[in-house]
Amino acid sequence: MSKSIMMGALAALGAALVVVHPAAGATSAELLKCQKSLESGIRSFTGYEATKVLGCTEKIVNCKLANEIDAVDPTACLAAASTACSGAPTQVSDAQTTRRDKVVLKCGLIPFMELEQFVAGLGFFNVASACGAGDATALVTCIFADSRCSTEHQVFIIDPRAQDSLTTAGVAGSFPCVGP
Amino acid sequence: MKIRQIAWFLPLALLATSAVPPSVRGDSATLTNAKACRKAVDKQGRNYAKKRLKLLLGCVDKLLKCEVLLEVDGTNANSCRSKAEDSCVKTIGPASDSSLSKSGNIFATIAGTACLPFGTAAMESNAAGGLWYGNDGTCGGSGDIPTLLACLRGEIDVRVDTLVGEVKPRASLLLDSTSLGVDFPNVPRPPTVTVVISATAPASGVLVNPGTINVPQGSALKFTGDATTLPCGGPGMSGRVTITVGTGSTAQQRTIREPWGPNEAAVFGPYIVSGDQPYTLDYKDMSCNDTTSGTVHTP
């Protein structure tokens, strides 16, 4: 078994344990670690997704522009680009899960009430209410899902042809927030 | 010898030319310009969004640390707050040399330069060969490239700032406690109940008791001062109201000062637990002194 698989298995086990056994009262260090971990995880994931999706759309749109402007046959170009894009949905989903689990490891240590409260807490009450989240795992999962959607909207702002490109590549269904 | 080399080279060169895919063989100037523009907006837009997220979260992190250390450990936050705000002003402040301003300028300059040869009309064209920015309901009608890019940047700002508020829900309150909050209106604010502290008549020096203040769960409580009745007369702007909510080690205290008005505010909470907490308003201005108290009720 590779080291990364071992680490993943340990992380998953740890996540399960910490969700079940949050501490009786979080220290300031635990609160700040949770918040920092969430920040790092979201930044890393959103950066990764933007790179993956825009990388895919760039390949497709370049084929289409060459066809539309220079009348170049796009068949081979689009086939190659679509193949390159085909792994993106799984890669992005895997990245989301991995990073989310790391955050749950840190934030699951903290009683949910302390994640929610604004004073001596992190203030997630309204976020948790909007998410319908009743524990740290559900809350973090929801925040990652929302960050993914936000990133996909940004992709569409940057590249208004992105939705069309992803449709051409056959992966638009995996990135439903790429749109207005 | 020379002729033999040419005899070998010529057919190979011809073969190589015919094997080169059309795109490598040479794009038209229009295609080259379209690709360059698209690539620049793509790369610079992504870099800008990433940088904005990093800078905002970084600033909020510094501000948050001061408050958590105070609230959990009782560590004095004054020096920490001051250092954190100085750092935030340098990174996300409105000055042209802040990190955030520079990042925005890089996006505008590099993407603007790259898109100039392709042109605004082609960028906004929704037809074949265009970049389809005309489909953008907000930015589509921009008349020139700098306006279009500034508009796109504004759209990115909204998305990023909203995300900041979800990842760090105390962000808006922390930013609002500094001079920077006004520059980030899209960081979501919690619902807020506002109480305007006033006197019974101009310069009366007698506070109106706000009575029981109802604050729903998840809402913050904001106090401001009434500019008409609170000034106590005389020169200077020395008036202040010190507000305390709660008791013991969990009590929060803030002071608002003259000049009174909506921009001078003290925010408490938001409160998430049902219950009652006492509050006290302690008013001082020249010869005027008064104290009043009541209850903050969260249903």
Describe this structure in words.
The complex is a heterodimer of chains A (180) and B (299). Chain A is mainly alpha-helical and 180 residues long. Chain A has one domain. Helix content of chain A is 75%, strand content 0%. The longest helix of chain A is centred in the first third of the chain and has 43 residues, at 28-70. In chain A, 50% of the residues are buried. Chain B is α/β, with parallel strands linked by helices and 299 residues long. In chain B, helix 3 (29-73) runs antiparallel to helix 4 (78-92) and helix 3 (29-73) runs parallel beside helix 7 (145-167).
Total strands of chain A = 0
Radius of gyration of chain A over alpha carbons?
20 Å
Structure annotation, total helices of chain B: 8
Q: What amount of the residues of chain B lies in strands?
A: 15-25%
Mean pLDDT of chain A comes to: 90
Taking the alpha carbons of the first and last residues of chain B, their distance comes to 99 Å
- Global geometry of chain A: elongated
Layout of SSEs?
The complex is a heterodimer of chains A (180) and B (299).
Chain A: H1 3-20, H2 28-70, H3 75-85, H4 88-107, H5 112-116, H6 125-131, H7 136-158, H8 162-169
Helix pairs in contact in A: 1-4, 2-3, 2-4, 2-7, 2-8, 4-7
Chain B: H1 2-19, H2 22-25, H3 29-73, H4 78-92, H5 99-115, H6 120-124, H7 145-167, H8 171-176, E1 192-197, E2 213-214, E3 219-225, E4 240-245, E5 252-257, E6 265-271, E7 275-285, E8 288-298
Parallel strand pairs in B: 1-3, 2-8
Antiparallel strand pairs in B: 3-6, 4-5, 4-7, 7-8
Helix pairs in contact in B: 3-4, 3-5, 3-7, 5-7
